[in-house]
Please model this.
Amino acid sequence: MKRLNIRPLQFSSEKKLADEMLKALHDSEHTLNPNTANWKDISMSYLQHVQECINECEGVFLVAEIGKETVGFIFGYIDELDDSNFERGAGSDLYVSEGFVKPEYRKMGIYTALNSTFEKHFSHHNIRRIYRYTLVANTTMQRWLAQAGYQAVRMVYEKWKL
Model:
């Protein structure tokens, strides 16, 4: 394998690449959750959301590249505590919003490298916890999360009335 390079995406000038990577994640999630919206219907507003999180919440969108090919990404931001917080501890929460590695590059340590770089990026912050969500059907990610020291704390139950 060629050398893996992880770098921050320059979102304003590389929005097309962010769109491609987020679409790939979205398509993958659709196979695990049929209630996932069509990417073309939400892409503009979601890309705007990502830009706002980068600008207003110290967000970062890291991409993993092998040669000239982008093979994965991770995106997250600082989620500041407010008066509604009911858990112990001081400091900020770091939210891992999205992450994805192309199927043909999985099981090569790329997501682990992305996550490690992501956490190092925020090492100068007073972070009390890192949190993320994953689909119940995404057992591969659940195994990775357990190996990386995450614990399941809450479950979200949904009742769709469509």
About this structure: Residues 4-133 form a domain with the Aminopeptidase fold (CATH 3.40.630.30). The mean pLDDT is 93.
